[in-house]
Amino acid sequence: MAHGISDPENKKEHFDSATELNEKLDLLSQWIKESQHFIVFTGAGISTSTGIPDFRSGMDTVLKTGPGEWELEDHKAKRLKSDAVIDDMQTAIPSIAHMALVALQNQGILKCVISQNCDGLHLRSGLNPTGVAELHGNMNLETCSKCEAKYLRDFDTVGTRTHYTGRRCDKLNCRGRLKDSIIDFGEDLPQDELDKAFYHAEQADLCLVLGNFSSDMFLLKKKTILGSSLTVTPASDIPKRVAKRKQNLAIGNLQRTPLHKAAALNIHAFSDAITQGIMERLNIPIPTWIVRRRVHISCQHNSRNQNKKQIILEGRDPNNPEIPFTLFESIQIIVDQKVIKEIAHQPFTFDLVDYDQQPITIRLNFFGHYNEIPFDLTYSNLTSIPNDEQFYLFYNPMMGQWRKTTNKDDLPV
């Protein structure tokens, strides 16, 4: 069965002239200034400039990533070596459009981002998850099938066809099997994310759609309850709802979408060009992307041996300290310039004894998706390791340096 867009007319890519684009961006920017509840709905096209291909762009697309994945499959074609596609989505750096949305959220202008993407770039960019609805899951998030605890990972968590990842819940009183959060075809959208999305669609006076909106326009999810088949509203009904409420719907997409006539404004340009133009008109700078990490360290006397101290080191979600985040590939304990322990798996728990007079270094080794260098936590002796400390590490890939701070807003320039 073909996945791609069947109508050749709908595959055509359109580009507004410079004059048309400027006029449309002027209007859209004015709407944003006047808006009380502005939301953005994103599809695969917002990530193509990062090197992640979309699904349905045609064989003759102008995108540097080349044709969509399903378009290639439908044509039994292979991707060209010249296509600018990254090998590992974990290495993708959030785009201009991603970072513009972060700035708009930080300013209180953008109330919610509703996304069909599972590449994790919205959260990686720095958006607060309370203002994000990920309808198709997140490749870095897995949840416990028993207690529903969430775990973020700095690696791809996609599991088997049954979604099990092979890992278990960290809670000793649970130990349930973990599942990835990806939504496959024929599966229901997550109800909590869907509820959040429709709540904001009901409040919105302006919705901007960015990137390959047609990707999932025609996918209906079905489930059976007590023998009856109930159609679960597809993601595409979210922007449609805004238009039906007679509020402004703006669509930024190269291809025409099924909501072309319903939209108050159709902009044919790349997502980065649209958002950059908006931010210039709003006079809001687009922030540089920074790797953001939150680390928690505790040092307590071992309950079975008071001469020993137990150190626990763990990552946490930068926006929610209650959610564990696997950040470290390994850690090393260095005393007197010698590695005395190395741990390459969770949990990063270890005991130390008799090092009261010697300097101790805890070296954090990251997964290195952005060529992050190790970071050393250096203490004058064992007693100087804090009983309980939470801090942030910020890394600018262009500078190649970490900054440690307790202020989540103290981002490096």
TrEMBL record:
Keywords: Metal-binding, NAD, Transferase, Zinc
Signal peptide as annotated in the record: none
Active site: H136 (proton acceptor)
Keyword Transcription regulation assigned: no
Superkingdom in the source lineage: Eukaryota
Gene3D superfamilies, per the entry: 2.20.28.200, TPP-binding domain (3.40.50.1220)
Tagged with keyword Transport: no
Molecular function per GO: histone deacetylase activity, NAD-dependent; metal ion binding; NAD+ binding; transcription corepressor activity
InterPro entries: DHS-like_NAD/FAD-binding_dom (IPR029035), NAD-dep_sirtuin_deacylases (IPR050134), Sirtuin (IPR003000), Ssirtuin_cat_dom (IPR026590)
Protein's GO biological process: negative regulation of transcription by RNA polymerase II
Membrane-spanning parts: none
Start and end residues of each Deacetylase sirtuin-type domain: 18-285
GO cellular component: nucleus
EC number: 2.3.1.286
Binding-site residues for Zn(2+), renumbered to this chain: C144, C147, C169, C174
Family: Belongs to the sirtuin family. Class IV subfamily.
Name of the protein: protein acetyllysine N-acetyltransferase
Organism: Rotaria socialis
